[in-house]
Amino acid sequence: SLIKFLEGAWVPIALSFIFLVAMYVWHYGTLKKYEFDVQNKVSINWILSLGPNLGIVRVRGIGLIHTELVSGIPAIFSHFVTNLPAFHQVVVFLCIKSVPVPHVRPDERFLVGRVGPKEYRLYRCIARYGYRDIHKDDLEFEKDLVCSIAEFIRSEKPQCSLGIEDVECDGKMTVVGTTSSNLDGIRMCEDDGDFSQMAGTSELKELKNPEKLRKRVRFVVPESPQIDTDTREELQELMDAREAGMAFILGHCYVRAKSGSSLMKRLVINLGYDFLRRNSRGPTYALGIPCASTLEVGMIYLV
User: Fold this and answer.
1) Which residues form the domain of 32?
2) Residue 214 lies in a domain
3) Most exposed of 2, 35, 118, 290 (fewest Cβ within 10 Å)?
4) Total-model pTM
């Protein structure tokens, strides 16, 4: 192309340069945004200072917070907590990662861990997908997600569920498969499920409320090993939260250059990256989230 530059080869060179600039601007802005997330993570001590109720009213339901962090608590959570008077009784920090392999085995789909002490009901879940894996619809994914958390609660080691003093278990993850791959684990049935055909299992359910008709959620738990009282109560609370519904909390981050930044950085961040972010498609998992159950929280990142 350089040899035939004046004969028309300048066209592919110009297009390549435009694409190069666009990819560099996107990569630079995304990298700065991720660095801001890492540097402004909420410490576990801040969570502990709020207490089990996080300093606010805990309402029924599951709050699903999407984040790109695989460890730590995102800044969007502290922004949400300090600006709204209530939060859900069960909070799940969900991170969806694309790994550089064609397929991820269903029995290795989820990594589940606990954030903070057991009574806080804060969980972290990392869903891993290969570049050729097909994402399930939102209802099937929600079922697999809740079952993976329930299986983690059932199989959690006792030393990782002590009290406020033990916070070293934050960051330790357990590999949990999908419902279809883990036939010996906890299974969930909604509405009018038939449990008579499931031999060797015991049903964990709550008493019926004759005054209010709502969707029923039941966990089918293996008989062995025996479940202790604390684990049964935590599973019961997770089941109640699933019956109440699930809210998807998405963070919209507006990246801006700090005051005093160079002219080039302001052009790249404030104009180039902002233009690409506004005109690019969101993540594929966000397309299947029901709009009625979505809550968007905005923040400004100064990089």
Assistant:
1) 1-156+171-180+228-302
2) no
3) 2
4) 0.77
